Amino acid sequence: MIKNEELILRAIEPEDIDILYQWENNMEIWQAGNTLVPFSKYQLKKYIESSSLDLYQTKQLRLMIDLAEQNRSTIGMIDLFDFDPYHNRAGVGIMIHQAYRGKGYASNGLKLFTDYCFNHLGIHQLYCNIAVTNQPSIELFTKNGFQKIGIKKAWIKTMKGWEDEAMFQLINDKK
């Protein structure tokens, strides 16, 4: 497990299927994850089974975020996606359950995950794509050292029309 005093980042367990089912089918957060259709429990079961495969096979890694206190509530998840082993880069995304937002958990989890990616996995750079209207996510990533490197115009189709998306990156300058 990857942990500090406050949080634990851990592998997905079969027991996580109900919380994943709830979160993955929450239409309010679909836009951030580019999701268009709901997930079945069967699909999630297969995903959980394949999550034990090697990062170099799947090109992704999802970890659950738990509070380190005794009851170890699961409060979110963090993803490494589009892992490119040749260029040694990957995308990162994070989701914290609404009840736990605004308490510093996302920042703490992102720092812990970034440290793991850079110092254990040896990744050279992480990037993320954020809708320009998603100010909390922009603040989270910039606070943690990610720099805005560009804007993709009219990139995201929403119910209200087209929206720009900003791209951020963090380079591991220790490598």
TrEMBL record:
CDD domains: NAT_SF (cd04301)
Classification via Pfam families: Acetyltransf_3
Record-annotated N-acetyltransferase domain positions: 7-172
Keywords, comma-separated and alphabetical: Transferase
GO molecular function annotations of the record: acyltransferase activity, transferring groups other than amino-acyl groups
TM region positions: none
Name of this protein: Diamine N-acetyltransferase
Source taxonomy: Bacteria, Pseudomonadati, Bacteroidota, Bacteroidia, Marinilabiliales
